Sequence to fold (717 residues):
Amino acid sequence: MKTYSTQNIRNVVLLGSTRSGKTTLAEAMLYEGKVIDRKGTVEGKNTVSDNTEYEQMNQKSVFATPLYTEFLDTKFNIIDAPGSDDFIGGAISAFKVCETGVLVVNAQQGVEVGTEIAARFADEYKVPLILGVNQLDGEKANWEGTIEGLKEAFGSKPVIIQFPVNAGLGFDGFVDVLKMKYYHFVDDNGKREDLEIPAEYIDEAEELRQALIEKAAEYDDSLMEKFFDQGELDEDEIRKGLGIGIRQGEAMPIFCLSAKKSIGVKRLMEFTIKVAASPAEREAELLNGSSLACDDKGKTALFIYKTQLEQHLGEVAYFKVMSGVVTLGQDLENAVTGDKERLSSLYAVAGKKKEAVNELRAGDIGCTVKLRAAKTNSTLCAPGADIAVVPIKFPASKIRFAIKAVEQKDDEKLGEALNKISAEDPTIVVVYAKELKQTIIKGMGEQHINFVKWRLLNENKVAIELSAPRISYRETITKVATAQYRHKKQSGGAGQFGEVHLLIEPIVEGVETTARFKIDGKDTQLNVKGKEEFTLEWGGKFEFYNCVVGGAIDASFMPAIKKGLMQKLEEGPLTGSYARDIRVFVYDGKMHPVDSKEIAFIIAARNAFKEAFRNAGPKIMEPIYNVQVLTPADYMGACMSDLQNRRAIIEGMGSEKGFSVLKARVPLAELYKYSTTLSSLTSGSATFSMEFADYQPVPGDVQEKLLKAYQDEDSDE
Fold:
């Protein structure tokens, strides 16, 4: 394969709902560029992009697969992104390295939630979109309904470039109002006749062309002036105006497609080459606040947007050349870590096919293998160049499970496998939660986690168990309480003795303590000798007051008392969860000249605190999340009812781009497997996002259940 200049490269991500036909479109594009000589099918399990066992078994994309084709002296780098919301991380990675997105819409289904999700993320990452209405050869193809849905979703942005002839099972062509031609297709491999527009379609074509001209003129003053003067723009001028509108995210050209029959594929590619942005038009943001021009004359820098373990190759690093020229055998360095890396291999990529090349220029996408340390989000640059691209920001997880190996002997193997999977897919987050004493795996949905489960079993031979994770509750108090505890232990020789009297009260934001309390029925003003304040790593505060007078407890034992209190804050008396927002006054106690030791006061403090806590109006706090549901209007009632059954507080309802939006505050404890339930309620047509909000007290009945479930009977002695 020849080396392409930056101007002759186009990087395109294919987006859309599951079964919109992205993979079939990718196959047709590769066929048009003669990278393949025969089109595969999803059903036949022989497509270039869906090439893994799991994808073929389930007939859906789970990886964002990089591909390339060559067309009109241009290298097309294509990333076929998964359609499922569960695997949105692949699309997010692609946005980092692609200048244009083709949003594929199923003409038989119209605008789906998945369509809206893809468009929303594309907008967030500033990737302009071209719309491809696919499956116009389907029995239920509805061109008019799809166009109406697109306008409802995207307002005035969609602009028709083509309209179909004989949409449905007889679909065999379209009228192109940019070229004012009728394209008639004579076979299933894209062979076409370029004809004059039939008389019955002339009026519609002229009307749509006028709308197209008006749209194009909006984005350029000179074009607008000519339009006002002459009422007409030529083809090149229309393309110029549309190009500006596309780059601004204000124009979304609509194309007719049957990817299965290769209808419209060539015209889509032609338009993308002539109108869409080249890599040279997009600068990369750097960590130092500056930007990097995509110029093959600049200093060499590549950005790794994805890593993946592949059979026979090991870990493959997929990258975009952000600047300069990358050459085989080149020595580069990680500007952040200082690690040195040599490019011992260099490939252009079409799925599993890796074509060895000697160089790739700025804007191009390729891969290498056997890097020592570089992972996803790493930038490698020429030594001393000090170039570090801003990393990809992935969305927050939406589902969580506790995970463990079925066989204890596989624990280490499981940990290693999870680390590798998480490195491949940053939307899979694995943490050991010290508080919960569980390993937690987080992902974007149950399909996402099930895929990980399948990989662990089939690729790593590790059987796992998934269960509901424990909840990170917080414990606090609502009133003042006192307690005392004597720890005395005699074991023949040296004994242990320590006695601690303490008082606790809640820390309330904006309210200072007076240190005046009623202790044993008497009003008492505590004499504060020392005060320490702590901001707890799990949230909230802890304040420690030394109020001991008369030498009842030697000052040397205060650190031990504080240590005992901190231990109990880390394992609260009610549920074993972290405690917070508590003020402790140690005001009295006793010690022994021989038997008093640090351990004695640690134990005495722990138990005194536990007793006082239980008498201080203890309250369990639970994590609350802000949840937003995007659903077709028909399912709004069912979604709301389900959330209310989950103790949700509904905060708002509305509509957005043709879909209903539901906002609520929901306890985390009630969101276990919510994605599965939502999918079932809405036939897979809804999605949601969630974000931590705060901690709130649990209802009384819930607290009672939690207390009964916690069976820690240790005496701490």
